[in-house]
Amino acid sequence: MSMDERRVVKISKYLARHLRHRPERIGLTLSAEGWVDVTELLAACSRHGFALTRSELEHVVNVNDKKRFELDGNRIRAAQGHSVPVELNLPSASPPQFLYHGTVRRSVEPILRDGLLPMGRHAVHLSPDRETVRRVGARRGKPVVLAVEAGRMAADGHEFRVSANGVWLAGFVPPEYIRE
Question: Which of 45, 88, 93, 173 is surrounded by the most beta carbons within 10 Å?
Answer without folding.
Answer: 173
